[in-house]
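Support reply, case 0932

Customer input (verbatim):
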Amino acid sequence: MINDRAMAQAYSDLHSTCGGVLEDYFGLLYLEQEHKVPREKAVNCTAFAGHDYGVDGFYFDEERRNLYIFQFKYSDSYAQFKESMQRLIEDGLERVFVAPNRDDKKNQILLQLRSCLVDNRVLIDQICFRFIFTGDPEEAERSKVLDKLREELEDKKYLIDQFFGERKVDFVVEFRSSSGRVGGPSTPHHTTTFDVQLTDLVMVDGPTGQKMHIGFIRLADLNLMHRALGQRFFDSNIRYGLGESEAVNRAISGALRQIVLDQSDSPSDFVFNHNGITLFAEKVELKDTLCRLTAPRLLNGAQTVATLARFLDKNKDNPKLIQGAQAYQAVRVLCKVITQADQKFVTRVTINNNRQNPVEPWNLHANDIIQLELQDKFRSDLAIYYERQENAFDQLSVEDLEGYGIKEESRAIQMLKLTQTFLLTDGLISRLSQMRRVFEDDRTYDQVFRKGRLKADSRHILLCYKIQFHLRKYAQEIEQKGQNKYWFISRARYLLWALLCQGLLNHDDLEELAEQHGKTMSVSFDYKDLLSWLATARVRLLLSELMQDQDYRAKVEQENLSFLRTDRAFEKCMDSAHKKWQWVHRKLC
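Our regenerated output:
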């Protein structure tokens, strides 16, 4: 059994020769116990210290003809896999299967693994990447962060295919507990490739080795990729399809109807009237008149692809669709295909290719790792859905939500409102009038969505987030205490929200409140009563003093209330609250 005592003993026995830290010996013990590897062999199959590129161990099972490649985390938190998975994706697989000698400082484990691969090239039938930790593998399977990273890892299978040549070798990714528990059933992953027509091709080199292929692609080929990949085709895009009510989508649908069904317009009209789409592919190969795309993902063009799919489904029984098949096959659109680019470069391309209206800047960050981590956080802590992609929640069925581990909720936490909650609890009232700049300026965005947010108590976040639902009610109750005296309250909405947050976070019974009201999106009568009391018995007094502050008297007389939307106004109120009730400024980490 692997426990702290066994780990300490292995560390004591081997540290003088193997080095490393205590946690490195988790992998050694796992190989010994799970795969019965003798210790003298296991030490050569386990990584100690750094430069491992995300490979912590390996084992070749000759009987099963499986090569197991491991990451080990002596932790019950699946989040520990994130950074090492990224290393494996960005550099590790290439170091092992393609360019083993590129780094002279690499860990000895990579040399051992490469030797094993070369010696057993004709014997290996399956590569199994196993991520071993002490936690619940089903929780790891539900993680949106790990799901995205797992997909990116699976999309690198073409590197394995290159190594084995004509031999077909399966590829499986699994999360497992050291206790023997496994996640969902795993199936071998095969490289997804599509041979498409990409005519009038031009290739452009990027700044650091990236490639861009520019040509014209058939809508029919886009639809085939979408049908084969499903929602995975959209995973790198900023949002789901917006529906037929949007003007852009109505225009695309109308154009398809005139070209394919009515045949009143030429197929060539479409390419002149369309902005084009952008794809990312792990690999692009030119084969005669075709272009082979490996693991393509849509970066821009979700409305085109989604509208096309709806158009074809809607008219599947329409005989005019069959009559217009030739016209449909002839419809093309300008297409850019990006390849040989890392995730950071792809993210920047996605953002810059989606800046046209009506996309908002917060939509452009939907696939950032921090947004995926927040989605995991709210799912894991509260079983509540975080809607980082616009319109995603409304398109999920009850079964989908259950599969994600989401309890039955009629509301999701929305990215924009969460951003406002973070800004208000930080005391940055002024930023709410410049929300676009929050998402357009990298430094500001990184500050608002800093890593510390992941350490905040999700219940406290939700307590503050839900204030918005009845904010007008609380303002009206303050005004009812004296309409002439509190005539300004409608202009102090954000300041009211911010101070109510501080009232909750400074409450003597915060833990009890978090348990009662911070675990569901619903707003109980007791919670509303508490906020009403805070608004009228606490915040009202702070705002009254603020209006009489000598710095603002002249502005109040002129009815210039812009100061109510300043950070300084919040600070003055908090100074007063500290003197009255010992409130301190509490942030959500």
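We compared this against your earlier run and they match. Two observations from our side: The chain has three domains: 4-177, 193-359, 369-581. Residues 4-177 form one domain. Please reopen the case if you see a mismatch on your end.
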